[in-house]
Design brief:
The chain is of the alpha/beta class. The chain contains eight helices and five strands, in the order αβαββαβαβαααα. It folds into two domains: 157 residues, Rossmann fold, CATH 3.40.50.300; 62 residues, Helicase, Ruva Protein, domain 3, CATH 1.10.8. β3, α3 and β4 form a beta-alpha-beta unit. The radius of gyration is 19 Å and the shape is elongated. The N and C termini lie far apart (38 Å).
Length: 239
Amino acid sequence: MPPEHAANTPPVKEQLPLAYAWRDGLSFDNFCGAENAAVVQSLQHGADGSGDQFTYLWGAPGVGKSHLLQAACQRAAQRGRAVAYLPLAEFVDMPVEALEGLEGLALVCLDDVQAVAGVTHWEEALFHLYNRLRDSGAVLLAAGDASPAGLAIELPDLRSRLGWGPVFRVQEPQEDEKIHALQARAKARGFDLPDEVARYLIRRSPRDMTSLFALLDRLDQASLAQQRRLTIPFVRSLV
């Protein structure tokens, strides 16, 4: 069942069903990529309720679309706004009733829109959700792996709604930006991440920041458990 927070009720993340929750630690502060400054600014305004009502992000896997959507959820929740994050790739086999009631929230983030392309009942459900959100004034942030025109959406009216607001292509961060983001996260967790170890992680592991942050957290736990510093030989033994 969808969360039942009223739009003016501060959400408590622990009360949300698991599928509506977002990952801790993904914020705009630790999103890297100077080329995406305009995207970040637009989503910050959307999370605050002072920007466009509809925004769509697209780009290759791993460029940070999910990070940005979850950062928007984090920012909105910190401001006492009711939010939901839905990774549609995990929802496509569920009943479309999962979308009911979302118009009562302040912010809805739909990830992996491409996952429901060509699934007739889901396309129709998203079309109706757009209309309900428009009428309620809720903000919708959506993301997919292609532009609205490039998605295999069969319902023309849904494709047009995906482009109702700004459409941004998210650019992949440079390697040095990823290193800076990893080192900032490590510092926040109370340990140092040498440049050479950060470069090793980026070149030998999934390159998207969500995966890299999760790997860094796992390495931190292993380092604490074994009382060892993060060196390339130690990391190599774990990844």
